[in-house]
Amino acid sequence: MNSELILEKMEIKDNTFARQFETLVDGKLVSLEYSFQEKKIFLTRINVPEGFENEEFINDLLKNIMEIAYERKLKVVPILPKIALFFRKNTTYRDLLPPGIKI
Questions:
Q1: For a Cys-Cys bond, which of 42, 57, 91, 101 suits 77, CB 3.0-4.6 Å?
Q2: 83 near 43, Cβ under 8 Å?
Q3: What is the dihedral sign for C-alpha 2, 56, 87, 66?
């Protein structure tokens, strides 16, 4: 089995009022801010607790959010360099990018 496709499911809340996806790690909030335009979701900012450096957790969070984008039939526009890097490393999600976006 392709290890890229193994997805650690996590509980993610879509806080539409704050326009962010939220999850907890060790009782602390990690969030990913977004905005919508037509059928595209722009991922604009990742907020983590002070001193948080678990890149694997962030990678798993992004994978879960990509699955949400698939379910909602959204295209994903990565605004942050960290999210663009995620697409470079996880080529299975490139079909979520809108036409004309090269990573």
A1: 42
A2: yes
A3: positive
- The model carries a pTM of 0.87
Q: Name beta bridge partners: 33.
A: 20, 45
Cβ of 101: how many Cβ atoms within 10 Å? 15
Half-sphere exposure of 57 (CA within 13 A, CB side): 19
What does each C-alpha distance from 4 to 18, 63, 93 come to in angstroms? 30, 9, 10
Q: Between β-strands 75-78 and 40-47, what pairing exists: parallel, antiparallel or unpaired? A: parallel
